[in-house]
Amino acid sequence: MSAPSYPAPNQLPPHGYAPPPPAPSNGLGTAGFVLGLLAALFATIPVIGVIAWPMAILGLVFGLIGISRARKGVATNKGLAIAGTVLAAIGLVLCIAWVAAFGSAADAVSTELDALGTAPPIGAVPTEGATLPFGETWISDNGNTIVVGQPEVGASESPLSAGESVISVPITLTNNGAEEWATVFTTFGGTLDGAPATESFSEGDFLYSTPLAPGASVTLTKVFEGGPGEFTLTASTPHGVAFFTGQV
Questions:
Q1: How is the beta sheet containing 187-192 ordered, strand by strand?
Q2: Average confidence (pLDDT) over 220-234
Q3: Which is deepest, 2, 102, 170, 190, by most CB within 10 Å?
Q4: Cα gap 21→19, rounded to integer Å
Q5: Exposed e or buried b for every residue in 73-112, given b needs 16+ CB within 10 A?
Q6: Number of CB atoms found within 10 A of residue 222's CB
């Protein structure tokens, strides 16, 4: 009786048998999708969205590599890689848009600051400008006009200084331009017989700051402490200075 036969160890597979295919390389395509999704989300958030820049760039690179691998048959997640590439591109476009928006805003702020820099500070007494009598019209460099009427001396009606002598000055502003007149940057000061006259904060239009629309006019009343004498009202704007003077 013969001994049973057993297959030889490490026996090779029959001829024509195909080995199992290698595992797909889906890592970069998946990474591109995750980074692209995060970039698109963070790019919509101001300031914090700055972290979307590297995510968008890496997501775009990984997504494109993932698409290339899928075309070569090395990866099987072509759709995911394409989605990641699209999301990363959207995130990158949003980042660029934010940079452009911030740049435009910075330019606007710089322009406003330059305009502020040309305006005389509140309380300053300019030394150069046009001198006119009360009732005349002064035209600034940008075409807007200021007319200061004849001041009148009277008694204060404020509870804080009832009965004291004050000078009431009517001032008419007219916006002849195409843009709003930011009246907050137009200041007025008074002198009586060469000495500074204090403006009353409890009467008249103290610190008037309402913007004046194109084509509109407004008449203000400025009230200063004092009585009869040589009175000068100084109107200071970013586009020029005028002195209105005469006896009150």
A1: 130-133, 240-247, 230-237, 187-192, 195-197
A2: 95
A3: 190
A4: 6
A5: eebebbebbbbbbbbbbbbbebbeebeeeeeeeeeeeeee
A6: 24
147-176 pLDDT, tens digit per residue, is 999 999 999 988 888 889 999 999 999 999
- The 3-state DSSP class for residue 220 equals strand
Q: Is the pTM of this model over 0.90?
A: no
For the residues of 158-182, what is the DSSP string, one character each?
-TTSTT-EEEEEEEEEE--SSS-B-
In this structure, what DSSP letter does residue 142 have? T
Catalogue the long-range contacts made by 135-138 (C-beta closer than 8 Å, 24 or more residues apart). 136/244, 138/235, 138/240, 138/242, 138/244
